[in-house]
Records
---
Amino acid sequence: MLLQQQRKRSRIVKMADSGVTDGNEKKGDIERAKNEGKELTKEEKQRLRKEKKQQKKSKEKKDDKAIQESGKETKGDSSAVSAPQPSTQSTAQKVPAPVSVPAPEAPTPAEKPPKSKAELKAERRARQEAERASKQSKKGDPGPQGAVSKSKAATNELQPVKRLPEHIQVDNPDVLKKLAKKLERQQIPLRLDYGYKVSLFSHLHQYSRKAPLTQQLSIPSTVIHPAIVRLGLQYSQGIVAGSNARSIALLHAFKQVIRDYTTPPNEELSRDLVNRLKPYISFLNQCRPLSASMGNAIKYVKKEISNIPSQCKEEEAKRKLLFCIEWYIKEKIILAAKAIAESSIEKISDGDVILIYGCSSLVNHILCEALEKNRKFRVIVVDSRPRLEGREALRRLVQRGISCTYVLISAVSYILPEVSKVFLGAHALLANGYVMSRVGTSQIALVAKAFNVPVLVCCETYKFCERVQTDSFVSNELDDPDDLIVTRNGQTHLEHWQQEPPLGLLNLVYDVTPPDFVDLVITELGMIPCTSVPVVLRVKNVDQ
Amino acid sequence: MPGPDKETDLTERVEAFLSDLKRGGSGAGPLRGSAETARETTALLRKITAQARWSSAGDLMEIIRKEGRRMTAAQPSETTVGNMIRRVLKIIREEYARSRGSSEEADQQESLHKLLTSGGLSEENFRQHFAPLKANVIEAINELLTELEGTTDNISMQALEHIHSNEVIMTIGRSRTVEAFLRDAARKRKFHVIVAECAPFCQGHEMATNLSKAGIETTVIADAAIFAVMSRVNKVIIGTQTVLANGGLRAVNGTHTLALAAKHHSTPLIVCAPMFKLSPQFPNEEDTFHKFVSPHEVLPFTEGEILSKVNVHCPVFDYVPPELITLFISNIGGHAPSYIYRLMSELYHPEDHEL
């Protein structure tokens, strides 16, 4: 009995991974199809799916605990993939398409909050019935798009509570176990936490930069594309940093993956490629938690892939995807930066003293454009330990010939009386109007408010995020704590901090700025107040 | 008595002290705490009183004022020197008045009535000679020295009144007073301390290691994270370099940001400052308020290519206005910032505010 269950589990897992059943009954059909033509016809596929569903229904009735667990895992997997995916595929996998299209950005496979098995089964059954009914009524339509739009329309009104991403549940051992199992299945090594974590942040990961994930990989890695391995290493060592840079690097790596991809026989490009990308994304997530912009980019890529019509030839499909990715980069990042620069330059007048913090590619671009339009201004660059990113911004601005002043963040209340405007970059804009950005941004906004200096945040719309957050604790990133150690006058006080049990070092990466500190947000859609972010998100979703 | 020898010995001591002050302030010499400076100043003033040649209180005051001006000019940011000089001048006035037999109160209060009728204190010129004046003054200075030695203990004794268990306390940089305060409380209560490291000097690191050695759970954060963690902090306890006459502070840079963040979250800000840090200066003097050190701490010489084209500032102090402060804890108890002006009038004579 146990062996049978295990076999069934492995079969379901395989089905979940490959998206195509390997059941013995189907093999005959597939052989026939292969002999007849390159790809299965539509009717064949629908029949296959129906038969699979019948199979699974009978298995479900056995109410096996193991199946439930693996079912939960596959659900977790497919939910990450699924938001724009055709509901047909997900029902074929026995898991319902997670309903909301603007699903949680964290593309990290989400884990369902613990519910009773009976509830889960009932929910799934109900959703399957609904989708089957809708599908049958739409048999004539160009399948995937219709179903997707219907489910989208149905679910836009009521969005269920989002599942919690894994990376903020480190203190929950069940979640960790599931993550370990999933990574094992995808053959990606698990990265271990490092050092003593401050108790307030025990729910977050804390990694050491000296132990990158790639050390645990075999070379050459057969599971992960080398471009992705290189990218992961660049992320974890901080070589590629900044949300725009990370997104662009990610998209370029995906382009490389698509170029090198060949559809295996009996597979459909739209499904298989998405499944190929899943372990890559887990790997990148282990190297460094994904940013909101990266999450949105990944969602877009997956949607484009799954929208490839099945009769498309492989070469044409790949060309199309490459074109889509290039369009995304051009439109959402490069042209958006141009539009934002044009609007911002109206806000810069001659004689201004502008304060910037850290190194934001967008803000640097704006200042360089303003210089070219012959505005006279000078810049004060504020920097903070331990990242000292402001030095990079300083170099870029000085090379262009902008006159700059440089201070550390503790001197900001000394220098603020001279300042006329503050320009800040953002990592993400949350749905409740809070600005998530590099740690220290909220402090600058606070002091600027106390001195009555206007604060302008520049952010492209692809960084808008559906999450809400009110403080910097619940969701954040902990960087390597050893970065805080410094040697001064020949003394390194914190060198042996690990040996002093009550001593902890905290190296936060992000913080959230409340909307009352921010006067204006400049996006490519115009200049909006902080509180209009959910409006923009809604408009974007309707467009898509 | 070998007069000339004593005199040269005295001038040598004074010169040595002055050069120490000059070196200590630039950050290159050994960093000494304000308490040490205060004690050394007072000891030096006692020596001057004992060994210099003077016949009346006025002469002594002149000598002390002259030396005092030289000392404050050596290191203007070290205000404890000036404070001690003013304390000693007040002591001399008191002793003189006592010797004369008149009550102190009437002499020193500038009431409107006195201003109109008698033309003020300018009549008093301290020319009378009193034999026991020298001994009295030296005795009073000794009392002052004892008071100075006990300040840190007096402040730490009040720790348990202000810290309860399971609190999260935030502090910035390194203050010996606050360290003693927290260690005293840690003997009986368990709490958590977050130390902001205060770049570029990073004195917070030393503070954190000292506190963790005393068994207190400590966390070191970067300056940039002060606002981010402030929502979980129950109290902010800081030290300061000087307490100004209006109740404001001249504290290490980054303190103003800390105070603003505490005000935003309605967290009480407690300043542990002994009385010798109270100075009759106001924060209006723009050019003397700030002190700057070498900017290579901020932008090192390794960034040579851009160094010449960039202005780099490295201020040492920050002004914190009195509205952001909740409580002062000093060796004579706790006070609100609005009470500071009254304490000042007890410590210093108004005519000594300008040395």
---
Amino acid sequence: MGEMEELRKEADNLKDQITEARKVVQDTTLQEAVAGTTLVGRVQLKTRKTLRGHLAKIYAMHWGTDTNCSKLCVSASQDGKLIVWDTLTTNKVNAIPLKSSWVMTCAYAPSGNMVACGGLDNMCSIYNLKGKDGNVKVMRELAAHTGYLSCCRFLNDSEIITSSGDCTCILWDIETGTEKTIFAGHLGDCMSLAVSPDFKMFISGACDFTAKLWDIREATCRQTFSGHESDINAIGFFPNGNAVITGSDDATCKLYDLRADQELITYQDSGIMCGVTSLAASLSGRLLLAGYDDFNVNIWDMLKAERVGVLAGHDNRVSCIGVSSDGMACCTGSWDSFLKIWN
Amino acid sequence: MFTFPLATMYFYSLTDNAGVINMDELTDVDKAKMERDQKKIEVKLERWMTSKCCTEFMEAVQAGVEEDTLVKGIAEDKNPFKELKGGCVVC
């Protein structure tokens, strides 16, 4: 037997063992477990603010988390700008012109001191919002990926994690502008990443239809979750960090529990046939808000896996969604160039 | 054939500017080795019973739901995102 065949056979054998081990612990399904709970009441959110200012498709948005910026958010548009918004007043706090307009992601540092973005330039650019002279300037350009930057998330002011179309994720040292760790293993473009609430792990979703859980300091992949039938575009942690939520081109979202190492439930409806572009969980995790290619956001009861609301207000694809860190509002960004704040 | 027994370590943990992994440069055999080695790690995981996970999941959700604005709603006068009223019109 050739080396390839042997390796494949070994891997398949191990995969079968993993499937078996997952079955062994499956003594109930989430559907059975929640049979006695009541569906959450119909959720009707209203648009409270519309953030106008971008001149082209919005590709990403991210809320600030620090108490001084919990009502601030940053958005990235292919008009070549990053805008930091005060969502209470709809004022633009910063409008940052980018070198490359082909931006696909943006992030707000937990401290509120920096924002980052990247895209088809294959780089992650870090901007210092608190420069001495008040001007926002590029602080670092992190270059090493050989594919587009699909997502980036700060761990702190000196470290950021990026995911790329080159199938890898990288942990960077912002001060030196160099790679600390390269996380390889996905066999398709990495589309999205999310950091665990305790900042020890991160998850990535990719075009190989899997999601991977990585230990940041050990630099290892701990677990791989399959089941989706197409690219995973969006990924997030359940608020307590014990489960992962994914959204895919296969029109479904899935909930995977980290301790059981398997899917607990799928959020799907025969009437939904278009891909999921973005997702966010409400503060308690009771609601899953997911943006789809059909211009809507569907709101799911995460326990009962039924739709309990729709956010209809954009005139084009909803590309990004986020719930503020205090859970008071959700923000949607769209290819129609607007961001909306709902609660 | 010359094989690199440390090659698999290289792929999982690179530090100190060791260089970039270009997935395009990895051979099919390299990728198959990575997969096989990854599954060797994953097969050893200790897994919880799903009943325990479901119970904890439900409890976590119920614990926070009362404070969850998007679920419970918010009174107009307490909503920080309400319409900003007041001020005056200058003609």
